[in-house]
From TrEMBL, chain A:
One matching Pfam family: MM_CoA_mutase
UniProt keywords, alphabetically: Cobalamin, Cobalt, Isomerase, Metal-binding
Cofactor(s) of this protein: adenosylcob(III)alamin
Record bears the keyword Isomerase: yes
Every B12-binding domain range: 533-662
Lineage start: Bacteria, Pseudomonadati, Pseudomonadota, Betaproteobacteria, Candidatus Accumulibacter
Name of this chain's protein: Protein meaA
SUPFAM superfamilies the record matches: Cobalamin (vitamin B12)-binding domain (SSF52242), Cobalamin (vitamin B12)-dependent enzymes (SSF51703)
Organism this protein belongs to: Candidatus Accumulibacter contiguus
Automatic annotation (TrEMBL), chain B:
Signal peptide: none
Annotated TM spans: none
Presence of the UniProt keyword Metal-binding in the record: no
Gene3D superfamilies: P-loop containing nucleotide triphosphate hydrolases
Organism encoding this protein: Candidatus Accumulibacter contiguus
Pfam families: MeaB
Keyword Lyase tagged: no
Keywords per UniProt: Chaperone, GTP-binding, Hydrolase, Nucleotide-binding
Stretches assigned to the AAA+ ATPase domain: 57-271
Protein name: Methylmalonyl Co-A mutase-associated GTPase MeaB
Amino acid sequence: MATARKNRDQPWLMRTYSGHSSARASNALYRTNLAKGQTGLSVAFDLPTQTGYDADSPLARGEVGKVGVPISSIEDMDQLFDQIPLDQMNTSMTINATAAWLLSLYIGLAQRRGIDPTRLSGTTQNDIIKEYLSRGTYIYPPGPSMRLIADTINYTVKHVPKWNPTNICSYHLQEAGATPVQELAYALCTAMAVLDRVKASGEIAPDAFPQVVERISFFVNAGIRFIEECCKLRAFGEMWDELTLSRYQVADPKLRRFRYGVQVNSLGLTEPQPENNVQRIVLEMMSVVLSKRARARAIQLPAWNEAMGLPRPWDQQWALRMQQVMAFETDLLEYDDILDGSPVIAAKVRELIEGAKREIENVEAQGGIIAAIESGYIKRELVGSHMNRLRAIESGDLKIIGVNCFQETAESPLTLGSDGAIMKTDPAAEREQIERLQAHRKNRNDADVRAALQGLSDAARSGENIMPSSIRCALAGVSTGEWGDSLRAVFGEFRPPTGIDIAIDSREVLGKKDRVTDLRTRVASTGNALGRPLKLLVGKPGLDGHSNGAEQVAVKARDVGFEVVYDGIRLTPQQIAQAAQEEGVHMVGLSILSGSHMELVESVLQELRLRDLANVPVIAGGIIPREDADKLLALGARAVYTPKDFNLNAIMEDMVDVIRECNGLERFALRP
Amino acid sequence: MTPVNLPDPEQLAVRIMRGERAAVASGLNLLDNKLAEARNRSASLLASLSGERWLNDGHLIGVTGPPGAGKSSLVSAMIREWRLSGRTVGVLAVDPSSRPELGGGALLGDRIRIKNSSHDEGLFIRSLANRNQLGGVATEVWPMSWLMLACFDIVVIETVGVGQTEIDIAEIGDTVCYVAQPASGDTIQYLKSGIIEIPDIFAVNKSDLGAPARKTASEIGRSASRQDRREDWDYPVCLVSATMNTGIKPFHDHFDRHRKFLANAGLLDKLRIRHQSAWVMRLLKEEFGTFGLELAGGQTQIGQRLSENRFNQFEEYERMRKHILSRFFFGKPTEQSNQKGAS
């Protein structure tokens, strides 16, 4: 019997992206996860925290504690890390627009506990560029946002040297449709933009600049095409090494290492036959551990049921055990790089590097990544890639088991439980967090708070590093919304180009031609029967900024003949109902991926009734568990679409029929 | 046989003049509706809303310019100023439709660019597709803008300028503003085309670009001053930046100044009467064709009748519609002629 060899490599950091309901509930979860062998923490924040709003802001309604933990002040941070020694923990925070603030709360908490900040280690995601392109939790315009990133880097390099102040993310680019070449190119362009900005700030002496380069880490995606993904990571390593040497003159090769963490792909996880996601996740993990030269420093895996809703502790444990089996049972960590010398791998890496270099030159010629975002170029490229993917799924060229082939299935015992196999967040969490915040506001020293906020505004205006004044705010008990609003007042808010702006000049039509022609006839004849063309409002209530789905539906609806008002993200239910009234639409389409669908859809329905628009049908799409979908239908929503409804033509047909029914017309005959 | 519930036009008119948002929305839906009964009621609604007051109140503003010039952001900045001074604003934002063979749909993206993030009861935005109608602005735009004029202090019509649109928009707005894009071929074409004769106010947006913006402004300035339209109006050219919020206040002030100029010179009501006649003619032609116009006595006679009832040309329009409809039904009196206001 074979036994494990002694000289094994150290495994990567094992984390689980988690947090929900409240600081107290999340703290309990973290301590359980650590007891199960997790070696680092990965904090998921709720959307109000990510976008700089207090729990009692009208925009936060229904969002508090949903996709992560609500952190309103240093007291919540204290509770989140209760009995967790900050100087021994490696904490990763998925936080971007408000990264400087959450880092300030963490540093402030360490100071309050008497821990020297130089002993803190961890990561703030702190990459705003991909927020503009995909994730949607941006607040400020590009200029001030890049300055906040540079401020955190400049501060941590000097005062919190073990911290990774920014994690350049290609992860979300792949979720938005990026090909491996695009992922490589845009991530490296982003890294250059960040480093150039830090350099331009003049805060770092030239001989200390290699230390800044060393602190830049990446957050990468790994999809199911695992050989290509493995090559992509080898390409990343080679390109980063070359770039940091040629562009930033980093002489020490150790400081040029491509350091990255991974969350494997969620885009390819399916709602039908969700148990298949287990093998998908394991195969995707292979691509980031297989090659020693390009192995991840930290891994977090999604749970098998992520396409259905929020995972339970047991689901997260299963994901952690996948990592542990890979690291401790297999012989993977006993070998040197097993892909070195393979001509097939080398050729693929070369091909990816050449493609990425061409695209980098292309972006640089346009004035760099920020100019290319403002002009809409990058979004257009990503939307194009994403449409190609959707078209391939609809045509069957891209096979997804259980979705567009092999749909036959026995009933899964995994999804039979009374909880619907997903986690429910505590419905009282929002009210409790609001009460907690309001109590906190009464308990603090108002004069200190005012002085600290004044210092923050002054620093924002003068260009002085934002971190020291933010840490003073943290210690004075300033709230997340107050921090966000103070900077909003100085920097303003930003609205980047959407997929809609881009689609206006694209003429892509998805799907089979005859079916589209038939759909157009249905849309037109229904419009004629009602007296005017069918008009649809598409919007995203709440704070969730993942707008790809909403944009796809809007573009598709336009292509089949709807007049579509796209109202974008971060809308209150009141704004949506008002828009529905002013625009005179025949249908309201809501997209919600944050799990706050129950509250938000109900409020929209209520606001519509208040305006005498109860007869305007509301449909909802998103990650909505079946049990919730049934409740939404009972509340008055007319249709609910989930990730299993991947065929946009079928959705459009259904939408037309819903409009017909609501206006006393017969449904069209089912397609044969 | 229609499944659609249509509102009573006279009651609706009363509610619109009281400024009820729901009534405004419902009135706009009615004016957009092409069912026969809806057209009857639309005509009644416009006649009920009409009156002498309509020739002197409010301010109808047309904003046009090439795609990408930043019209929506600029309109958004202007709305902030109007709202600060306590005036209510209605906006009709027109976007192009895709060609009929591509489904004829439209993505209406102006709303997201115009609106402010906070809820505002004094602002009403309606997006419209131009529906590929010949001659720039869709025929729905004009009656809709008049409906909005009955209840908002300011009505802004925003359209993408492509030649014919400027001509149409000049037959809607009291004041027409052209938004130019610095260093853009569109603006050069525009300068050459002679359409420059139309706008009353010019804005060169993105003035933060510096030299190219100043150059475009001076080119427009040279062309604009040579025309022979109104001697006492100076056709201002403004450098503005909607994103940096610079130059907005002086630019904004020109709109009030232009309206005062029209009113003092006694031009405002004349202009509106002329616009009404042109559009009534166009509405009739769109619904009934040249043959229909002949049935109503031909263009000259229609023009004569409209000018006789110039304080409520819509009343005349309603009468002529009924007349034409009755002729279409071989001279027999039809139900329509007795159905005014039926609910």
